[in-house]
């Protein structure tokens, strides 16, 4: 497992980096870097983790913006038919805008944007379509045009309301390279095994900690317990299966790692505020479903504490 602090190399002829990547699993490592990142993805369905936010990616196009040193990763659905992901990524420092420029009264919206991206944001609606055109034109543009296209992208983002904040405002990780490597191991293990029964002891062994030390460590580094994290991953997967509408609720229950329907329904209702069948019905009745399968708004994370002791029995 490579260290998760990513070093971004920028061409000395440019003030920021633009890259196009194609493959089955681009950007699928839990990592962070001091640069701001604009990431636009085509064809990559799965699940994303940004800071302490976990949510599904169910659309063909997806865009996130992450602030300096905000950890993030994307875990792709390996069962998708073509398995090909196209991604445009832009890395830049806030300094390319200049403090004097950002302090201009006309650019108050841009200053607000710079504050919001510290939590990470995801783009929706018509703004997503507009930015797709700009982002996928960047690699072929000359250096001067790239700069003005980046400014145009930031201008579009500063004006739009088509976005959602991702990580919670209080999320302030202090992660060393060792922490990132450890969390990568735990995340990788969880995403590969959440469809079966997992005990806390088993997860703790992945990074050679005792059960008690692991619980303290994971909570300290992520802001949530491992039980809460595992539950969010499982319910997020359940939401996607409900929307695909190819399996019964009973089948989905077992596909998500639950061994009884009562436990599944209980946890689903705590996180989503409704039952699986009602969730599915509401999704298909909505005229605009682009946000219906988001796993969890972090304002709801506190409610998962209600089931911590209940889940503890199983682990």
Map the helices and strands:
Blueprint: E1 17-23, E2 36-42, E3 46-50, E4 53-57, E5 61-66, E6 72-76, E7 85-92, H1 99-102, H2 108-116, E8 121-123, H3 125-135, H4 143-159, E9 163-165, H5 177-193, H6 200-206, H7 211-222, H8 226-244, H9 249-255, H10 261-272, H11 276-285, H12 308-312
Antiparallel strand pairs: 1-7, 2-5, 2-7, 3-4, 3-6, 5-8, 8-9
Write structural notes for this entry.
- With 315 residues, the protein is an alpha+beta fold.
- It has two domains: 17-165, Sandwich (Jelly Rolls), CATH 2.60.120.10; 177-312, Homeodomain-like (Arc Repressor Mutant, subunit A), CATH 1.10.10.60.
- It is built from twelve helices and nine strands.
- The protein has helices spanning 99-102, 108-116, 125-135, 143-159, 177-193, 200-206, 211-222, 226-244, 249-255, 261-272, 276-285, 308-312, and strands spanning 17-23, 36-42, 46-50, 53-57, 61-66, 72-76, 85-92, 121-123, 163-165.
- The strands form two sheets. The protein has a six-stranded antiparallel β-sheet with strand order 1-7-2-5-8-9. Strands 4-3-6 form a three-stranded antiparallel β-sheet, with helices on one face.
- Helix 8 crosses helix 11.
- The two termini are 27 Å apart.
- Residues 288-315 have low confidence and may be disordered.
Tally of separate domains: 2
Helix content: 40-55%
CATH topology (fold) name of the largest domain? Jelly Rolls
Annotated CATH architecture of the largest domain? Sandwich
First-residue to last-residue Cα separation: 27 Å
Looking at this structure, what is the CATH superfamily of the largest domain?
Jelly Rolls
**Radius of gyration from CA coordinates:** 20 Å
Q: Biggest sheet: strands side by side, in what order?
A: 1-7-2-5-8-9
Q: Main β-sheet, in a few words? A: 6 strands, antiparallel
The best one-word shape is: globular
How many β strands by DSSP?
9
Low-confidence stretches: 288-315
């Amino acid at each position: 497992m490579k260290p998760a602090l990513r070093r971004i190399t920028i061409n000395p002829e440019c003030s920021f980096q633009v890259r196009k990547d194609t493959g089955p699993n681009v950007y699928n490592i839990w990592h962070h870097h001091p640069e701001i990142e604009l990431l636009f993805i085509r064809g990559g369905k799965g699940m994303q983790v940004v800071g302490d936010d976990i949510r599904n990616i169910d659309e063909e196009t997806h865009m996130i913006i992450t602030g300096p040193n905000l950890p993030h990763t994307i875990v792709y659905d390996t069962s998708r038919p073509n398995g090909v992901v196209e991604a445009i990524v832009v890395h830049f420092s806030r300094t390319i805008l200049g403090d004097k420029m950002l302090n201009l009264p006309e650019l108050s919206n841009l200053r607000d944007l710079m504050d919001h991206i510290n939590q990470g944001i995801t783009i929706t609606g018509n703004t997503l379509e507009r930015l797709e055109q700009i982002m996928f034109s960047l690699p072929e543009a000359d250096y001067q045009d790239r700069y003005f296209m980046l400014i145009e992208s930031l201008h579009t983002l500063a004006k739009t309301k088509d976005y959602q904040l991702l990580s919670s405002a209080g999320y302030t990780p202090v992660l060393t390279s060792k922490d990132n490597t450890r969390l990568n191991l735990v995340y990788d293990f969880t995403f590969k095994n959440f469809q079966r029964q997992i005990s806390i002891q088993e997860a703790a062994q992945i990074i050679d900690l005792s059960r008690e030390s692991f619980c303290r460590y994971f909570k300290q580094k992520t802001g949530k317990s491992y039980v809460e994290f595992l539950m969010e991953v499982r319910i997020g997967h359940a939401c996607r299966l409900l929307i695909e509408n190819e399996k019964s609720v009973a089948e989905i229950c077992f596909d998500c790692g639950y061994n009884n329907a009562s436990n599944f329904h209980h946890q689903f209702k705590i996180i989503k505020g409704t039952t699986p069948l009602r969730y599915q019905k509401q999704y298909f009745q909505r005229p605009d479903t682009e946000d219906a399968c988001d796993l969890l708004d972090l304002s709801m994370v506190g409610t998962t504490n209600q089931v911590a002791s209940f889940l503890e029995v199983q682990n």
